[in-house]
Each structure stands twice: as structure tokens, then as C-alpha cells.
undecaprenyl-diphosphate phosphatase
Amino acid sequence: MLEQLNYGLFYLINATPASPEWMIDIATFFAKDLISIVPVLAVILWLWGPRNQVVAQRQLVIKVAMALAVSVLMSFALGHLFPHDRPFVAHAGYTFLHHAPDDSFPSDHGTVIFTFALAFLFWHRLWSGALLMVVAAAIAWSRVYLGVHWPLDMVGGFLVGLMGCVSAAILWSLFGEALYRRISHLYRILFAIPIRKGWVRD
């Protein structure tokens, strides 16, 4: 039943040789490059921002990192426990993006971007989480559209991201504050010169 749904949704979304080239180009950008918003935004939040919000921003970055660590580990385990061929390996649809023929479930890109978006939804602002959810949906769509993932790979990434955020919330309640203090101390040592020159926040 699920497999039939997976195939049905895939053929509904997957591009064909008749698809417009500009759509293929946009999807390729979404699939390959849009994920870079994760490290870029994390660095910006840690290094800069209003002085009265820096602590909250840095705690958010640590929570996100914890959630990502759990999610990626869980994704790795699920991929080995429930191996599933990618569409092009199963000779389904059309492929417009080169990819290694490794396991597809759950999607690594989906896991990372959905974890990131959910973290902002839970721990930052509703608007930022909603905006990142749009980005996550675009990445998820693009990788199915280009033929390197199944729709349920993305659903799996979302659910793994949700479990990663729940786990991170539990871990933060146990030792989050102590971890924040240690990382902040290490940051001030390593970035002493940029901090002193005012290039980044203390």
C-alpha cells in the first residue's frame, strides 16, 4: 500500500524530458545549493546579532546542532535497517541529477533541512520556522522532481527531524546550560582577536 502510494506520488512529481529546462535548472539549484542555508545561518546567528539576543541565538545554534546530530545518526541507522533503492536504481521515472546509487530512505537532505526548519519553529520564531519550512519543502520537491528520491524519503526525513528536535529538547534540559557555557568559553579563547576588534560579538 505504502509502496504504491510512493510510486504514485513519485510519477506525479517527477520531471520528464518534456519538462521546461528552466524548471530543471531551478530544481537543480534547490536540490544542490539551497541546503547551504543551514551552515550559513548558523554562523551568522552565532557571530552577529543584537547584543540582547546573542545568548538566545547561540543557545538556538547549539540546540540545532544537537538535533542535527541525533537526526543524522538516526537517518544513518534507518538507512541500514530499512534499505530502499533510489528511483533510478529501480528504473522508475527520469533522472536529471547525478547521484550515487546508495540507499534513499530517509533522505539526508530532507533530514537536515526539516530538522533545521522544525528547530526554528520550536525554538525561534513562528515566521522564521515557517519560512524555513517553505525552503525545506522546495528542497524536498526538487529532489523528487529530479528523480533522486521518493516522496516517502522526504516524509521520513521530516519525521526523523521531528524526533531529533524532541531528543535535543530532552538533552538540553539535562546539560544544555553547562554545554553552552563551555562552548562560549572556548569560542572566546579561539576568537579573542576578532572579538577584541569588534568584528564579531563577544
Summary: The chain has a mean pLDDT of 94. The first helix runs from residue 2 to 13.
